Amino acid sequence: MWKFSIRRIMIMIPQVILLSIIVFMLAKMMPGDALTGLIDPNVDPNTIAEKREELGLNDPWYEQYTRWVAGVFTGDLGQSFHFKMPVSELVWQRIVNSFWLSLLTLVLTYLIAIPLGITSGRYNDSWADRLITGYTYIGFAAPLFIFALVMLWIFGFHLGWFPTGGSVKPGLTPGTFEYVMSKLYHMLLPALSMALITTVSTVQYLRSEIIDTKQKDFILTARAKGASESRVYNRHILRNSLLPIAAFFGYEITGLIGGSIFIENIFGYPGMGQLFLNSILLRDYSVVTSLVLLFGILTILGTLLSDIILSLVDPRIRIK
Amino acid sequence: METNKIDIGKEGSEIVKSPSGWRIVGREIMRDKVALFSLIFLIAIMIIVYGTSLLLDVREIVKVDLFSIHQPPSEEFLLGTDYGGRDVFGQLIIGTRNSLSIGILVTLMTGAIGIIYGLVAGYFGGTVDNIMMRILDFFQVLPFLMIVIVFVAIVPKYSILTFSLIMTAFLWMGIARLIRSKALQEKELDYVQASKTLGTSNFKIMFTQVLPNLSSLIIVTMTLNLAANIGLESGLSFLGFGFPESTPSLGTLVSYARNPQTLEFRWWVWVPASVLILVLMLSINNVGQALKRATDARQRRG
User: What is the pTM of this model?
Assistant: First the structure.
């Protein structure tokens, strides 16, 4: 177990280095540099050239790269042209919002997936199973952004049950109970929309896993011993079927990253996905590169997490 | 069919050959009414869309007409007009054509790269496989959506071709991984060893002997990928990082719904396109699932 984890982490290191090089090159390819936003257009071009030399923007790329990496490690991600503030501060504000939204989405995903998966696996070929399978079939094909739009249209605009944008009602003081409730209220519709779509694969997986386990010999043994039906399901089948689901946890996180870009855009939720799209449109490239790096590292960590959990659950896949 | 029966000698006993791959596919689709309907629907959509788009004048449709902004459906405009006074129905036809074309193009390109990459990695195995898989792993942990959006934003000469190339560059890994795992199994089989002993070149074995044996898998995967790619393209166009407005895609039409007024009151702009995306993806998935059953004897229905 430890051996595998360490090996797996060793594989991760070159991935992170490669990612940082790619992000750095992307940053270099983007028009404009750290000075474009800081300097007044009236300033004499000679001064800009001097300043450029001083900041080391004319140095060979590997020197600039090592400096940039050193900056990233000390938490210096550069300045945002548009917001005129350090990128790290700007990102931090948004991370908190995105974190809570993702957490709620994950909780809802499992809250929906587990009962549906169990029902449809336990009573397979019943009408409830057919209903759930139908839902997963459509949910599998439906693109997230269309589903989210329809949810916003119905519950946000037509029925008016939920707010249609923002992350909190303006005018509330942070820390109060009302503030927290308002945050939760604003997150509920976006999180639910995303969860209803992302949960589909987990439901499908849980269903087939339960149907598979149901026919195993040890279940027959359990029944032969006289275990009650609920004990067979809760103790024997569920324990064996839930473990693989737990392993998908890390992949689920990486899936959330892509989804959050759509969801935050549609619901006007001020998180990292929205910041990313806005920064691209505003050509605020230091923010864009930092976000790509951050999301990239999160994706790598998510995959790492899943691989390690999977190796715990299923010893066969441990790479030698 | 007479080819089905082989007459063996004196006894005159008949041995029925197991049906050929295509016949199984045909039978499977005929048996699965949903898949059959989906296939007919897809073919009909393609004929309608590619046929009528020849007759439609694209310039006329995407031309902004300020006198007819946001008109509800009427006889002149079957599905009303958008914020630029452009006919939604015409855009729907053109958009479906563009979305389908790019979906097919990206699927074919990712398929070609993925098949070659996976075959080489799986067939040679060992160190080659190891190195190639580490490269693939790296591509797979990139945050796809963000990288594509960044590339779309910074590519200097942005066109439909560059868009599909960008998408391809970050989408070939899934099929490559699949082909590789199958090629790893396939190369252990006797016929590959026999060919090697006969002195057949590796290149020839890979592409004329191993590849045909994986064809059913490739067709199934590519069909399912097509649905996913259409979804991705319309998603990117929805965010504004796919097709430009002058060449509408289905996602472009849906993106007008980001204006709350349009979302709430002008259903005709975005609902038809959304429904069409959903139905297209469902039908392609249905056909793909039927193909999958046909190629996997355990799942076959008949």
Answer: 0.83
